[in-house]
Write a structure and sequence with these properties.
By secondary structure, this protein is α+β, with helices and mostly antiparallel strands. The N terminus and C terminus are likely disordered. The radius of gyration is 17 Å and the shape is globular.
């Protein structure tokens, strides 16, 4: 199946950029490798407790190129929208936000995940990214429900989701393998009717 057919079936354009005067969310590019490598390398101890185990080749340029190709394929097929978060001007890489597990048909929902470089954490950048991403998910992608799951002791992520208007729904036992161990997660959700403008948007 060609890329054009994928885009038609997924209602997706060739690429995506979501921006305001301070922030830019866009698909990763090969040219982002140097910034990505620097930020992820210096943030490893900060990120590892909350992420799947890093592979031995995690930080290599070839692995990054494969990641970019996979991201483009997932976007073209409508499965996911993997985005890097940049601060403007200068496009300084801050972290990433992925709109994944996109499900069409009767469900019309997705799962979001995100990461932030250690030196940029706690400064409101990811909240700003959510303010950009949520209207895109509900208006452009025309989805109805966003889900997010985080480890119960990740208080920073829980505060972020609650501030963005997500509601706690339940407890997922041994939901994902994180840093080599199966970890329980707390499930949060946000519905279209609760988030779009003129509908008590929490952002």
């Amino acid at each position: 199946m060609t890329r054009s057919v994928f885009r038609f079936l997924s209602r997706q354009p060739e690429t995506v950029e979501i921006a305001n005067q301070n922030y830019l969310l866009r698909l990763p590019r090969y040219a982002d490798y140097r910034q990505w490598y620097q930020l992820r390398s210096e943030s490893r101890a900060f990120l590892e407790p909350w992420e799947p185990t890093w592979r031995p080749d995690e930080m290599t340029e070839s692995a990054f190129r494969s990641r970019v190709i996979r991201n483009e394929q997932e976007f073209a097929s409508g499965q996911a929208v993997p985005l890097f978060l940049f601060h403007k001007p200068g496009e300084v890489l801050l972290g990433g936000l992925t709109i994944g597990h996109i499900r069409r048909g009767a469900g019309q929902n997705c799962m979001i995940g995100y990461w932030m470089g250690a030196r940029h954490a706690g400064q409101g950048h990811m909240y700003a990214a959510l303010r950009l991403a949520i209207p895109y998910i509900f208006s452009t992608l025309e989805l109805h429900r966003i889900e997010a799951a985080c480890i119960p002791d990740n208080s920073r992520s829980i505060r972020l989701l609650e501030k963005a208007g997500f509601e706690r729904e339940g407890y997922l036992r041994q939901y994902l393998r994180i840093n080599g161990q199966w970890r329980d997660h707390v499930l949060f959700s946000l519905l279209c009717d609760d988030a779009l403008p003129n509908r008590n948007m929490p952002l």
